[in-house]
Design goal:
Blueprint: H1 2-19, H2 26-37, H3 55-58, H4 62-70, H5 94-105, E1 132-141, E2 153-158, E3 165-174, E4 180-188, E5 200-201, E6 224-228, E7 231-235, E8 239-241, E9 248-249, E10 257-259, E11 264-271, E12 278-288, E13 295-303, E14 312-313, E15 320-321, E16 325-328, E17 333-341, E18 346-354, E19 360-366, E20 377-383, E21 388-395, E22 411-412, E23 423-431
């Protein structure tokens, strides 16, 4: 009698447990995760190879999605969780991973359409609603240039801003993203000797593999070069277009960027020909603050030396340590954004804050860098005057690096993806009344390329 009672009780508990553990469905459980973490890229016109907007889109990829999230390959997020904290962390929680795995393992059911959240109104074309649109250059991209290399294009266009303008977001919009590797831009005052809308390129002597030859001239030109009668001047890139990345939105940091009246924009355009000749027209859209903000966003960078004497990765070296990039802050700031940049041989990169009292804090550690995902990491670290920001990186120029085009050659700082870079881009926020030219103790001097 007691045994039968126990069996009945256990059966009831089992039935209750099953009732309390409803099946996982796409509409109720999976779609909210996709909207928050995946659809930025997984929708038409974006970098991902398939859309994940609807059940019909997603069902056939259920097993592949399960495998990718279990391995933490997707969504791409490379920051070491042991260091720093990030406001835009799009990695999945363990609970979210378990939900997707259970959904795939239990038949990938659709569920009740009434359980689905409203679809996200993803913008087409313009991801912002621009208050101002600046017409950028028109550039011809050949189908088959020499060595299949198209040198970086530099061109200056006017903003035609009639008054000082606080911009709150920026979108650089190429007409042909399929051949656009990146577009970066910087603001600067207009002077009469600046040649507007003139396409400028620095042709470099290159070997048969397309690598620039350091013994025959600079392998790396200005990131942003202002064309004047005296040559090209270097300038700091303010904002960039990178495929798959969201637009630059300073409202996220409760800040804006001041553009003085009459400023020009100089763009650096890197195209990758794909065998089909096209003509690309670039537009730049801005949203504008109605009232001056309290905080001002400043774009900066810390780069390794670019000369071949200091930056030369030896052949077959699996762990070459780059010279660091370093800056020192001359005033209190808030570090709000970091975007590390290397190419195919980039292995790892670390941003370290060294405070005036000697204390060190790792703000960002990317132990497994992946060039195919140019991610930005947003944070909110108060940084006192006198703090140093140091960026360290390693490169894998060995045959073990599957992305390595050629492990048997020395690799220099250069503009093409089979050459290398080591730049730690970052953004800080200061009070709107602080001088943006005095953020760093030692700013890189503005110089004419080649002098």
């Amino acid at each position: 009698m007691l045994r039968n009672t126990l069996l009945i009780t256990m059966a009831c508990i089992g039935t209750l447990g099953a009732a309390e553990s409803p099946s996982v469905t796409f509409n109720k459980d999976v779609l909210p995760i996709l909207q928050k973490n995946c659809q930025t890229c997984h929708r038409p016109g974006q970098i991902a190879p398939m859309a994940l907007l609807t059940y019909q889109d997603t069902r056939r990829w259920a097993t592949a999605i399960k495998t990718a999230v279990q391995a933490r390959v997707m969504p791409p997020w490379f920051a070491d969780p042991q260091f720093g904290h990030f406001l835009n962390d799009r990695s999945l929680t363990r609970s979210e991973i378990n939900t997707i795995v259970k959904w795939a393992n239990t038949g990938a059911m659709e569920g009740d359409p009434k359980d689905a959240p409203p679809p996200v109104n993803w913008p087409e074309g313009w991801q912002i609603q621009p208050d101002i649109i600046v017409q950028g250059p028109t550039v011809d991209i050949p189908a088959h240039p020499r060595h299949n290399v198209m040198e970086w294009v530099l061109v200056t266009v006017p903003t035609e801003f009639k008054e000082d303008t606080w911009i709150t977001s920026v979108q650089i919009r190429p007409e042909h993203p399929e051949v656009t590797h990146h577009i970066c831009m910087g603001f600067h005052p207009h002077t009469p000797d600046i040649k507007l809308f003139e396409i400028m390129q620095q042709d470099k002597p290159r070997d048969e593999e397309g690598s620039a030859l350091p013994e025959k001239g600079p392998t790396f030109g200005p990131i942003i070069g202002v064309s004047t009668a005296r040559g090209w001047f270097r300038a700091t890139p303010e904002d960039c277009y990178l495929p798959g990345n969201p637009v630059t939105d300073y409202r996220y940091f409760k800040a804006a960027k001041l553009v003085p009246a009459g400023s020009d924009i100089t763009l650096n355009l890197h195209y990758t020909p794909n065998g089909v000749g096209v003509t690309d027209h670039v537009q730049i859209g801005f949203t504008v603050a109605k009232d001056p903000p309290q905080r001002r966003y400043i774009s900066l960078s810390a780069s390794a030396p670019t000369d071949p004497k200091n930056f030369a990765i030896p052949p077959n070296d699996p762990n070459w340590q780059s010279p660091p990039g370093e800056v020192t802050f001359a005033q209190d700031v808030e570090l709000v954004h970091m975007t590390p940049h290397m190419h195919f041989r980039g292995k790892d990169i670390t941003y370290t804050l060294i405070y005036p009292d000697g204390r060190k804090e790792i703000a960002l550690n990317v132990p497994h860098y992946d060039f195919h995902w140019q991610l930005g990491y947003s944070t909110d670290i108060k940084v006192p005057k006198g703090t140093k920001l140091r960026v360290d990186a390693h490169f894998d120029n060995s045959a073990n690096n599957e992305s390595n085009p050629n492990p048997n050659k020395t690799v220099y700082f250069g503009e093409m993806t089979w050459e290398e870079m080591m730049v730690g881009f970052f953004g800080v926020v200061i009070d709107k009344n602080d001088d943006p030219k005095k953020v760093l103790l030692r700013r890189p001097p503005v110089s004419v390329a080649g002098r």
